[in-house]
Amino acid sequence: MSVGLDEIFNTSARLQIAAILLRADEAEFSVIRDVIEVSDLALSKHLSTLSEAGYVSIKKAPRNGRQRTWAALTSKGRRAFQQHVKALQEMITVADEKIGETASD
Q1: Separation of alpha carbons 77 and 17, rounded Å
Q2: 27-62 pLDDT per residue, tens
Q3: Which of 47, 52, 59, 93 could serve as a FRET partner for 17 with CA atoms 20 to 30 Å apart?
Q4: Strand 27-28 versus strand 66-73 pairing type
């Protein structure tokens, strides 16, 4: 894998989760699920992977008589995601440069 890319973010769902949490202090499970359009089970697995890596913290608490789950990026997760995005942007820049070089040949 390219330098700076993080295998934890190798699925679009985990990329989307990190992007959502980058902009929010925390997000409720159902909101994340609805935005990224995955099942409860799939989201639970993705959040577990992110949590085990230390990238996401999970908080459970009762709300309106039901148990709710919230997720938030940890500082480690924020740094890892930002580095991953930077690596992707660098890959795009290199690709653009290479395409420009072959076009001018």
Answers
A1: 11
A2: 999 999 999 999 999 999 999 999 999 999 999 998
A3: 93
A4: antiparallel
